[in-house]
Amino acid sequence: MQKAKVLVVEDDIHLLEGIHDILELDGYQVLTAENGINGIEVLQAQSSPPDLIVSDIMMPKMDGIQFLKEVRKENRWFSIPFIFLTAKGERADVHRGMRLGVDDYVIKPYDPSDLLVKIESRLERHREINRVYNSGMATLKRQILTMLNHEFRTPLTFVVAYADMLNNPGEQELSREEMISYITGITAGADRLRNLIENFILLVELETDSAKQTYEWRKGPIASVEGIFKEAQERVKEVEARHHNVTVSIPSEIQIFTGDVDYLTSAIALLLNNACKFSEEGAPIEMGATVEGKDVVLWVTDHGRGIPANEQEQIWESFYQIDRALNEDQGAGAGLAIVKGIANLHGGRVGLESKPGEGSTFKVILPVTETESAGVM
Fold this sequence. Notes:
Layout (H helix, E strand, L loop, with lengths): L4 E5 L3 H13 L3 E5 L2 H10 L6 E5 L7 H10 L8 E6 L3 H10 L3 E5 L3 H56 L8 H32 L2 H9 L1 E3 L3 H10 L2 H4 L4 E4 L7 E3 L1 H17 L7 E8 L2 E8 L21 H4 L7 H11 L3 E7 L3 E9 L10
Parallel strand pairs: 1-2, 1-3, 3-4, 4-5, 7-9
Antiparallel strand pairs: 6-8, 9-10, 10-12, 11-12
């Protein structure tokens, strides 16, 4: 079985041929180039990139340092392990290469067995990283597919089924009540789809730092949180649909803090939606703000099923849900990850107090700087 493919870049022809023969005898597929420019040409000619690159530093036309820079510019070559061949007097160049992301170096003159060991160790390390990455990606894909299968299919079924009944009423005309019922069903399904899509867009923005740019642009002093809780309650239609009595408690004086009103409203709306989802219909829900030391805390409390202590760290992870198959709760498991991301944007953190069977209090804890603490609402 043939081993990995290795590109060797070396301007000394005799040394290049020697390395080629050593690697080929050990089972490697070997590509060669006499300088950095030639190395780039060889890389571009390959249908699939090599598994590792071995390059001299001192070369004409394009030296090893510049060659490494050019390789790292290309996404398809970015993760290829890179080993420098260097003379004893080129330590400064080795340091430059290491700052640019070179993986290892071999000092000339070298022992062939040392070169083989370094190549294999770097390849094995690269394979292990890929295994971990692919395992993580496989888990993420499985979570997304599971979520798409359930969360998107369910509201789509509502929309399609009710629309079909409106378009094909049968022999009897639909009554006004039936039409209203079908339109209500379509609206509910469309609203749920819209919320899912908006949450996924926000989650992607948070995980790719796009939201950080938006936050820096929109942030400003917040002197009142009443509007945040009022708007959040208006966004969550489950409050009225499930007949929850929501009370809001805000102290008369609270420090002014820096934040983004829209992001914080989204966070509270997601917490309120969770409180509705995990509480019995008609159960009371409380939310509000408090001051804890130098922090402003926005919180939502439900009296639902509660969360076991061993699950309280994991629930903030993307797509994580407790007993999803058993409870069949609506939602994609992205809400709390979004809340945590929004708290992090503000330089804050999240908190949770919960007991199984008694309910939960979710917190968004926001820091108040010294300059802000002088102001109160």
